[in-house]
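User: Can you model how zinc ion sits in this protein?
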Amino acid sequence: MMNAMQFDGKSLNPIERDLRDPEGHEVLLRVQACGICGTDIKILKGESEASPPVILGHEFCGIVEKTGTQVTFVQAGDSISVDPNIACGQCRFCRKGKVHLCENLTAIGVNIDGGFATHCYVPESQCYSIPPSLSPEQAALMEPLSCALYGFQKAEIHSGDAVVIVGGGMIGLLMLKLVRLSPARVVLLVEPDISRRNFGMTQGADAAFDPHDPRLQEKIRTLTRGGADCVIECVGNIQAVKTAYSLLNRGSHLILFGVTHPGHSFALYPYELFKNDIRISGSFLNPGTFQAAIDLVQSKKITLDDIAIHTFPLGEIEHAIENQTEQKSLKTVLTLNP
Ligand SMILES: [Zn+2]
Ligand SMILES: [Zn+2]
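Assistant: Here's the modeled complex, given as structure tokens:
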């Protein structure tokens, strides 16, 4: 028997279901931990698409309980973190290697049943082994870390660059840890919450600023010698995007990592982009970065021990969602089958 929280298009409801044997390439996982993501909250608010009725939760890990007859490299008892994004492998984008742009992309925990459950059936192709040194709560962070890693790779930070990260939440913090691995000359953080700014300073930021500081641009221009070479926006609202844009320099690169509301826009002057040779890039999902994210943690290049993770059991999912929505801790994770 499995227990889960199913999204019916409006709200989450507890369900019970009999377990069946996994088929073909399927793996039956006993879920250990599942992160609550901003995307889950957007789905519940009706601001992001899903395919109800569906069990949400796309940042999760677990132990393999049973495998289908065609499964070859995963075994019962293995610790697994799940890459939720499934590409078809056959459309023109997949065939160009751009699997995250797949025309038939489906996501576990969005379009098919995910990790807000005691058990989950996942294709073997989405399973990644995790080292025993990682706690389940940390293993559930591999999906957001893999996405941050893709954004970091797209930023193409060069030796001596001045980098600004806008947003000191979970993603901004992971980005900060990644940028600290690069040869950037200076890394600055822009974040309204003072405790998050202070934490960012302990994580390697050279300075941290309040976005409401009227002298923000001036201060950052001084520390970066005219403006950032690269700005990475990790908030996902228009005000933060505007702030990020205002910190650019000639030849800068702006990475839009945060997920803004699809209906929100802001005006910019194409001439400014042209004359200053400015590049703006989106960063979508995690193509080819899941194993690398695990490897960075296994090799201790990236440490997760210092991230405040608040855990809740499945039955307290409402509190967990409230905790994540109100940002009471950096990350909220459901723990299952303790
Ligand atoms: Zn997510
Ligand atoms: Zn495809």
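A couple of observations from the model: Residues 87-88, 90-91, 93-94, 102-104 surround zinc ion (ligand 2) (CB under 6 Å). The two ends are 16 Å apart (CA to CA).
User: Helpful, thanks.
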